[in-house]
Design goal:
By secondary structure, the chain is of the alpha/beta class. It has 14 helices and 24 strands. A hairpin with a 2-residue loop joins strand 20 and strand 21. Helix 5 packs parallel to helix 6, helix 8 runs parallel beside helix 12 and helix 10 runs parallel beside helix 12. The structure holds ligand EPZ.
Length: about 425
């Protein structure tokens, strides 16, 4: 196990290159199952979750090759040799559920372990299962597995109304519908940029899709999809994380290869907090600079895109701990996504949690401490707090962090932060 030690009090100045989005790369990788031709993906981030999904795909017979230097991944699903995504792999990475729709569409059957819950919530997959059943799949749940079989002639187009906005369910059904017989309409679909990126890749592969980025997506099934090359969209959550880091530490930070269209929801709240964001369309970059001596507290509620993303909630809470005044953070997507709060309190933050809301009263300074990462975004919120805390902060269990942030120690050190990765001493 490893830990990160951060020595607080250093401004961030300079440039950071934003990586391809984890939450786009994962569904794009499962889309390879939909075609017998090789799919090449560029800008695939070198992350633990990407490696975990490769292991699941390899188990199905998909050949994968990834070069961490060029960030290029090729996937070849010419021969699907198994339709089983086993518990020991799916439990490592719940987004493995995204092989379900493509397997049913291309291969006609699938046996995928139920992903189970995780630290931030129960995270059921009922919307995925109900939608596929509406497309004619026979689905049974046995011994913790989803056993699914497409009808003899293949999945059929259907009108699917999602009871809740779900990123994963939208992606699974979007992919399944590309090869279904007839037309599928997804109502109350999720609108995240990662779904648009997946859809654009599917269209380039020959799929017939309208309505990407809206809450109604229409897919006309086609007989086959072809292999292409696609570049993964920039990671808006990584960009938002570094924007908040610079807002906290002060300094002037430019993020290269960001996709500014996808962080507009940050402009208004961060402006209110006293942060300026200057976009440079030509260079696909965005420059962040705090324009007040001290940030101001703001109230934020997480919502599906284009609202404020739940994946930036922990980072925002960190930012509010040292703001002037108070801010209310309300989490509407997941039922247990405040686990960073007790750890921030150990660093001297003043946070009161009531159900799905947390009131953060700003304090002049945080104090470095030993803290524990509990989930991906909570981990990075503790790193952000360490960047501004007095003294040294050690974040333990940083395997959570490595799931979703590529080279974060190097990226932050490169713009003036003082931090290092260390081995955990034997207990
Ligand atoms: C995706 O998870 C992201 N993961 C999450 O990012 C992100 O937080 C989430 O979308 C919301 O934006 C990937 O893209 C790999 P949902 P997903 O289905 O698809 C409930 C990160 O930190 N729900 O949109 O699992 C669910 O419990 C991760 O990068 C059902 O009830 O999220 C949740 O309350 C964390 N039934 C809400 O919907 C279902 O069948 C939204 O979940 C599916 C979901």
């Amino acid at each position: 196990m490893e830990k990160i030690r951060i020595y607080g009090g250093h401004e961030l100045n300079g440039h950071i290159d934003i990586s391809g989005a984890k939450n786009a790369a994962l569904p794009l990788m499962t889309a390879a199952i939909l075609t017998g031709e090789p799919l090449t993906l560029n800008r695939v981030p070198d992350l633990k979750d990407v490696g975990s999904l490769c292991a699941v795909l390899n188990k199905l017979g998909v050949k994968t090759a990834y070069d961490p230097a060029s960030k290029r991944m090729t996937l070849d699903a010419t021969n699907i040799t198994s339709c089983v995504a086993p518990y020991e792999l799916v439990s490592q990475m719940r987004a493995s559920i995204l092989v379900l729709g493509p397997l049913l569409a291309r291969h006609g059957e699938a046996k995928v372990s139920l992903p189970g819950g995780c630290a931030i919530g129960s995270r059921p997959v009922d919307l995925h299962i109900d939608g596929l059943a509406q497309m004619g799949a026979e689905i049974s749940l046995e011994d913790g597995y989803i056993n699914a079989k497409a009808p003899a002639g293949g999945l059929k187009g259907a009108q699917i109304h999602f009871a809740k906005v779900s990123v994963g369910a939208t992606e699974n059904l979007l992919m399944a519908a590309t090869l279904a017989k007839g037309t599928t309409v997804l109502f109350n679909a999720a609108r995240e940029p990662e779904i648009v990126d997946l859809g654009e890749c599917l269209i380039a592969m020959g799929a017939d899709i309208q309505g990407l980025g809206t809450d109604k997506i229409t897919i006309r099934g086609v007989s086959a999809l072809k292999g292409i090359t696609h570049a993964v969209v920039a990671d808006r959550i990584e960009a938002g994380t570094f924007i908040m880091a610079a807002a906290m530490t002060g300094g002037t930070l430019t993020l290269n290869h960001a996709d500014n269209r996808h962080i507009h929801y940050l402009l208004e709240p961060l402006h209110k907090a006293g942060v300026s964001l200057t976009e440079n369309e030509a260079e696909h970059s965005i420059t962040v600079k705090r324009v007040r001596d001290r940030l101001r507290g703001i109230d934020v509620m997480t919502e599906p895109y284009p609202g404020f993303p739940t994946d930036l909630q922990a980072q925002l809470m960190s930012m509010l701990t040292i703001a002037e005044g108070a801010g209310m953070v309300t989490e509407t997507i997941f039922e247990n996504r405040f686990m960073h709060a007790p750890e921030l309190i150990r660093m001297g933050a003043n946070i009161t949690v009531h159900g799905s809301s947390a009131l953060v009263r700003g304090v002049p300074m945080l104090k470095g401490a030993d803290v524990m990462a509990t989930d991906l975004r909570a981990s990075v919120s503790l790193v952000l707090a360490g960047l501004v805390a007095k003294g040294a902060t050690t974040v333990h269990r940083i395997y959570h962090l490595d799931r979703g942030y590529e080279n974060i120690v190097e990226k932050l050190s490169g713009v003036g932060a003082k931090l290092e990765r260390l081995k955990e001493e034997a207990a």
